[in-house]
Write a structure and sequence with these properties.
single chain, mainly alpha, 16 helices, globular
Length: about 290
């Protein structure tokens, strides 16, 4: 699941911003952070029987998290015959991925072999720190369907770590492109009602370019992969999730195309040096419509 696709889910989930925070914390973690996260694991210092009971509780929580509606399962529940309206309604209430896919992203991509710090700590420390982050991510993803007690059990350890200042947010260094990305994120965070309306209008204006946009997104993702910048692009997209939600966009906006427009602009900025001019132009077009640059 690409970062842009994951972002599409996160901007429509009630606690999607919290999921983005967890993933960003994992991306930013150094060896010291991983060691500190391991200390707040609920099984730290407990007997084997208690750790086994915690493992069973964690497994049951994940079974409950599977109840978050997915796009492929939601269509049958939606009334009406307007295909476009039904699709938007479906996207507002269901996700592309699921809790299991999210956890794989965290374990295999965020904290996988390419993470610069995971090889610097003991395996037991890494496993405990990963569990803390994974529990928090799953708890936030499924916050709407989990019983409050189960949600608190999953999210609590990372909340303690965050309150103690153990986790941070990564900075994205894109060289000369960094100011433009930071400018876009700041502009999104500061949007007012007229600003959001301009983005919605830009989305409507660009709907005819759907196929070129999808091809351009694929080209940018491939460029990130072959250049070793997948983690950088993922960080930028997760920061964009936060900015999108902080700017007041709703799940309906995300389902109707506003997130895709923002995600495309992010891809176009981050991978600008490796994209053909026409591809970059397609991705950046919504931003240019909003600002009046043509």
């Amino acid at each position: 699941m690409s970062a842009a696709t994951l972002g599409f889910d996160l901007v429509r989930l009630p606690a999607g911003r919290a999921v983005a925070d967890v993933l960003l914390a994992g991306l930013a973690a150094d060896a010291g952070t991983l060691e500190q996260l391991a200390t707040v694991h609920p099984g730290a210092g407990r007997a084997r029987e208690e750790r086994a009971a915690l493992a069973v509780r964690s497994r049951r929580a994940r079974e409950l998290a599977a109840a978050v509606p997915r796009v492929r399962d939601a269509a049958a529940d939606l009334p009406g015959t307007d295909r476009a309206a039904v699709l938007v309604a479906q996207l507002e209430r269901s996700t592309i991925g699921d809790a299991a896919a999210l956890e794989r992203v965290l374990r295999e991509d965020v904290l996988g072999a390419e993470h610069p710090a995971t090889g610097l700590v003991d395996a037991d420390v890494l496993a405990a720190a990963t569990e803390v982050l994974a529990d928090a991510a799953v708890g936030a993803w499924a916050a709407e369907v989990l019983p409050p007690l189960v949600h608190r059990q999953l999210a609590g350890p990372l909340a303690v770590a965050a309150a103690a200042g153990m986790v941070g947010v990564p900075e994205v260094d894109l060289g000369p492109a960094t100011p433009e990305l930071n400018g876009l994120l700041a502009a999104l965070r500061e949007l007012d009602a007229p600003g959001r309306a301009r983005w919605r209008a830009a989305v409507d204006e660009g709907r005819a370019e759907r196929r070129p946009w999808a091809a351009a997104m694929h080209e940018a993702s491939w460029a990130a992969h072959v250049s070793g910048r997948t983690r950088t692009l993922a960080t930028a997209q997760l920061l964009a999730v936060r900015a999108f939600l902080d700017g007041g966009f709703t799940a309906s906006d995300g389902a109707a195309g506003a997130w895709n427009a923002v995600a495309g602009c992010v891809q176009g900025i981050v991978m600008a040096d490796l994209l053909a001019a026409d591809c970059a132009a397609v991705l950046r077009a919504p931003m240019q419509r909003v600002t009046g640059e043509r």
